[in-house]
Amino acid sequence: MSDISPASILYDADGHPVGVVLDGALYRLQAEAQLQTKAKGSTAAAHPTSVPIDANRQALSVALVKDPAFPNDPGVDVRVVDNSGNPVGIVLDGTIYRFQTDAKIARGASGLVHLDAIDTESERGRLKATLYTPEGESVALGAVASTATAIRNDFAKDSGGSPSLLVDGDTTPVVFTYDAHPTQDVSLQEVKFVMASNSITFGTDYFGATSGPLANGLLVEVTAGGVTGTVALLKQNEDFVNFASPGGFEWVVSSKDLLASTWLVGGGLKLEGGSADKVSITVQDDIDSAGVYFRAFVRGNLLG
Question: How far is 304 from 298, CA to CA, in rounded Å?
Answer without folding.
Answer: 19
